[in-house]
Specification:
single chain, alpha/beta, Glutaredoxin, 5 helices, about 20% strand, globular
Length: about 160
């Protein structure tokens, strides 16, 4: 009986250890590979990620009700203005409520490329687990970095990193 308990405990520990990386960590293997392509169509526009090649793409997944997303948006807006010749910011909202998405764009004066993907098909390709999550894609379409949480996109470190790409 004692042997059975020990074997059971060992098997349970192994099973749990095997699941430790079952959340978003496997998606980190995407770094260094071609960014998964997607097309999103909402009431305003159709965006195909592949069409943005040739520039660095800052692919940002967000929602209108996300406080860290609200904090981050002004720096994304400023980055787009500051580095427009080198960078395209693509902010993909996963809002279920199209009206809330449009109110957010107006309220925060978002004037860079955005699209709403309420079915979350694009964010699912990237294995996002929350908002904001942002991916840096180089001009050739390779995924270079992933950021979880809000980032100051105009910080000297980020701007320097992007200029080197």
């Amino acid at each position: 009986m004692k042997s059975f308990r020990i074997q059971f405990a060992v098997l349970l520990a192994l099973a749990l250890a095997g699941c430790v990386g079952c959340n978003d960590q496997p998606r980190l293997r995407l770094i260094g590979s071609q960014a998964p392509d997607f097309t999103v169509k909402d009431s305003d526009r159709t965006v195909n990620l592949r069409d943005l090649r040739g520039k660095i793409v800052i692919l940002n997944f967000w929602t209108s009700w996300c406080e860290p997303c609200i904090v981050e948006m002004p720096s994304l807006r400023q980055l787009q203005k500051q580095m427009a010749s080198q960078v395209t910011v693509l902010a993909v909202s996963t809002d279920d409520d199209a009206a809330a998405y449009h109110r957010f764009l107006q309220q925060y004066n978002i004037d860079f490329l955005t699209v709403n993907d309420p079915k979350k098909q694009s964010s699912d390709l990237y294995g996002t687990t929350g908002q904001p999550e942002t991916f840096i894609i180089d001009p050739s379409g390779k995924l270079r970095r992933k950021f979880i949480g809000p980032v100051n996109w105009t910080s000297p470190e980020i701007v320097e990193y992007l200029q080197k790409l």
